[in-house]
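[09:14] KT: can someone run the structure on this one? pasting the chain below
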Amino acid sequence: QVQLVESGGGLVQAGGSLRLSCAASGRTFSRSAMGWFRQAPGKEREFVAAIGRIGVNTRYADSVKGRFTISRDNAKIALYLQMNSLKPEDTAVYYCTQGPVLTTTSSEYDYWGQGTQVTVSS
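[09:31] RB: done, structure tokens below
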């Protein structure tokens, strides 16, 4: 059974930074792609970033490219999202997700965390 638990969300001013973490359980972490999605109030869940099994291959949404960095530590069974130069439009619940392949499509991921709230004030 895979469990994903996000942490690190909070309230930050525009231009600030946050680092999200996702602690994973289960034996499949190192064989899985990982991703971050987000959902703002009244909007659909959208792709943010994804990373391959060994951390070499990454993908980013155009809206966060150059500001966010996804990384993973397979020894610690953890996923991270470093978010810099935050904007009010980054305000959302951020979800960690795990799946068999690196993809930007939410339906191709098998497991999801409960989410962590990120609020960016202007």
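[09:33] KT: thanks! The chain has no helices and eleven strands.
[09:34] RB: yep, looked fine to me
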